[in-house]
């Protein structure tokens, strides 16, 4: 079923020259893949490329959940594994009304490339359940999670496929998945998920890992461009886990955080904001908006403010043909997944704006998830300094490899990251050969 969907999607992508706005996520992922293919070195035979364009496996599950009022409601969930060429599949699980099979397949493919860019021994996966968690009680979410886990337990496991939190799932959901899986196998299996609470095998430093990885990349990019982070002007869109911690870490580096935003709007102070105070205000009032001494701005205005570093850390598709010409940042550090549309990438490249692409810039999260899994399967835990110093090594090595590829091929950084990642996975597939 998945293969048929993927094949017909591929045909439609190749037949038409359509703007990225009209593509579904899988078509978008396949278009990015096709863009990288001519640069692969050595050339990869077509059969292997065809394999990489499709997910290896997609499981669709329709399952019942007993609701608090005693009624039974049916839910649909997915788990897609794009590749297990380099190791177990790895990727988050999201609970959202708009989850589709195409979306989880695309996200699984992007996870393969993200793991390959940072050189961790995983393939890509993603899962989701079509539901609106805001309409469910905590007990209903627990029952939904446990039943979904039981349904997908035939393909997940510490050595097969390791879920993690994504949109509307959190450490508690990971704990329920870990417990349900462990009940099935008959022993505690912490390595089946990452992003767990510390008490049951979570890793120190995981909460800050995405932002920390982003900041390691920003430091490297700033050095390359000759920008002193001391006093550099920073704008952050989105003030959740990734955005608020990135702002705090950059502030510690001496940067001036001049504007931040959340879903309710943005705040701007050209003299600088204290990100810790802004976070306290957001916790107390529910938004960054209304922070004393700052002007209110819209999210659209925020993205085009004059600054040195722009950190999109909220949603996808924020930077596009319509605003890319007006962006004034020197560095765009994509803490968010998919904040830049392909048309904007070319505009930024032509304008000399240095984009740190998402699969590199926010890979600190999956990297520390990998460290969590390594600790879990060894039952041997690291201190936070060890986690952070290993993360720094991984991010710096990946950053340098992406930039070297971009310079060697004369392409923008996202294409370079994709070329590097696809090359690594394609080589693994060719070395393993085609079974039987
Ligand atoms: P989060 O839910 O903690 O925070 C999201 C923030 O974005 C919130 O402050 C929210 O108010 C804000 N936001 C929502 N809609 C907005 C809008 N229209 N304009 C401006 N702000 C808006 O989520 P997060 O974990 O920080 O994730 C943010 C991004 O980073 C996502 O794209 C996610 O996929 C990506 N990411 C996160 C991690 C991680 O480990 N947290 C890892 C990799 C990638």
Chart the SSEs and their pairings.
Layout: H1 2-15, H2 25-36, H3 46-52, E1 57-66, E2 72-81, E3 89-96, H4 101-117, E4 123-130, H5 138-152, E5 161-165, H6 171-185, H7 206-225, E6 233-237, H8 241-252, E7 256-262, E8 265-273, H9 275-285, E9 295-297, H10 299-303, E10 309-312, E11 331-333, H11 342-351, E12 354-356, H12 358-361, H13 364-378, H14 384-409, H15 413-432
Parallel strand pairs: 3-4, 3-5, 6-7, 6-10, 10-11, 11-12
Antiparallel strand pairs: 1-2, 2-4, 7-8, 8-9
Helix pairs in contact: 1-2, 2-4, 2-15, 4-15, 5-6, 7-8, 7-13, 7-14, 13-14, 14-15
The chain binds nicotinamide-adenine-dinucleotide.
Residues 210, 237-243, 261-263, 299, 313-315, 335-337, 362, 365 line the site of nicotinamide-adenine-dinucleotide (NAD).
Task: Summarize the structure in words.
By secondary structure, this protein is α/β, with parallel strands linked by helices. It has two domains: 2-186, Leucine Dehydrogenase, chain A, domain 1 (Rossmann fold, 3-Layer(aba) Sandwich); 209-352, Rossmann fold (3-Layer(aba) Sandwich). The protein is built from 15 helices and twelve strands. The strands form two sheets. Strands 9-8-7-6-10-11-12 form a seven-stranded mixed β-sheet, with helices on both faces. Strands 1-2-4-3-5 form a five-stranded mixed β-sheet. The two termini are 22 Å apart. Nicotinamide-adenine-dinucleotide (NAD) binds at residues 210, 237-243, 261-263, 299, 313-315, 335-337, 362, 365.
CATH architecture descriptor text of the largest domain: 3-Layer(aba) Sandwich
Strand content: 15-25%
Proportion in helices? 40-55%
- In total, how many beta strands? 12
Q: Which whole number gives the mean pLDDT?
A: 95
Just give the CATH class of the largest domain.
Alpha Beta
Q: What is the straight-line distance between the termini?
A: 22 Å
The biggest sheet amounts to: 7 strands, mixed
Which stretches are poorly predicted, pLDDT < 50 over at least 5 residues? Answer: 1-16
**In the CATH scheme, what's the topology name of the largest domain?**
Rossmann fold
- CATH homology-level superfamily of the largest domain: Leucine Dehydrogenase, chain A, domain 1
Structural category: alpha/beta
Q: Radius of gyration, rounded?
A: 21 Å
Q: What characteristic shape results from the CA principal axes? A: globular
């Amino acid at each position: 079923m998945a293969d048929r969907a993927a094949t017909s999607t591929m045909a439609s992508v190749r037949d038409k020259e359509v703007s990225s706005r009209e593509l579904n996520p899988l078509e978008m992922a396949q278009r990015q893949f096709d863009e990288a293919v001519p640069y692969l070195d050595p050339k990869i035979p077509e059969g292997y490329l065809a394999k990489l364009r499709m997910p290896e496996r997609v499981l669709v599950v329709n399952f019942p959940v007993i609701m608090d009022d005693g009624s039974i409601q049916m839910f649909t969930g997915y788990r897609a594994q794009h590749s297990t060429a380099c190791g177990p599949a790895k990727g988050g699980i999201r609970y959202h009304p708009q989850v589709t099979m195409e979306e989880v397949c695309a996200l699984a493919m992007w996870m393969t490339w993200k793991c390959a860019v940072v050189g961790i021994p995983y393939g890509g996966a993603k899962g989701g359940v079509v539901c609106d968690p805001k309409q469910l009680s905590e007990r209903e979410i627990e029952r939904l999670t446990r039943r979904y886990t039981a349904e997908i337990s035939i393909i997940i496991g510490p050595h097969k496929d390791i879920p993690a939190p994504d949109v509307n799932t959190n450490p508690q959901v990971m704990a329920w998945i870990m417990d349900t899986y462990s009940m099935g196998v008959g022993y505690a299996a912490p390595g089946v998920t990452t992003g767990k609470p510390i008490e049951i095998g979570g890793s120190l430093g995981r909460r800050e890992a995405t932002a920390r990885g982003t900041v390691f990349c920003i430091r490297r990019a700033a050095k390359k461009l000759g920008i002193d982070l001391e006093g550099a002007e920073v704008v952050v869109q989105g003030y959740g886990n990734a955005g608020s911690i990135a702002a705090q870490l950059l502030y510690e580096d001496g940067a001036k955080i001049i504007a931040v935003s959340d879903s309710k709007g943005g705040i701007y102070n050209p003299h600088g904001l204290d990100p810790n105070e802004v976070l306290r205000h957001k916790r107390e009032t529910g938004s960054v908006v209304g922070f004393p001494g700052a002007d209110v701005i819209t999210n659209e205005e925020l993205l085009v403010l004059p600054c040195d570093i722009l950190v999109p850390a909220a949603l996808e598709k924020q930077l596009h043909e319509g605003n890319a010409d007006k962006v004034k940042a020197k560095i765009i550090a994509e803490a968010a997944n998919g904040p830049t549309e392909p048309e904007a990438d070319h505009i930024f490249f032509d304008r000399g704006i240095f984009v740190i692409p998402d699969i590199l810039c926010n890979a600190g999260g999956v990297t520390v998830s990998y460290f969590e899994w390594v600790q879990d399967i060894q039952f041997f835990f690291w201190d936070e300094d060890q986690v952070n110093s290993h993360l720094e090594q991984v991010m710096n090595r990946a950053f340098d490899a992406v930039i070297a590829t971009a310079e060697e091929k004369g392409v923008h950084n996202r294409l370079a990251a994709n070329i590097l990642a696809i090359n690594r996975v394609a080589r693994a597939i060719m070395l393993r050969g085609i079974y039987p």
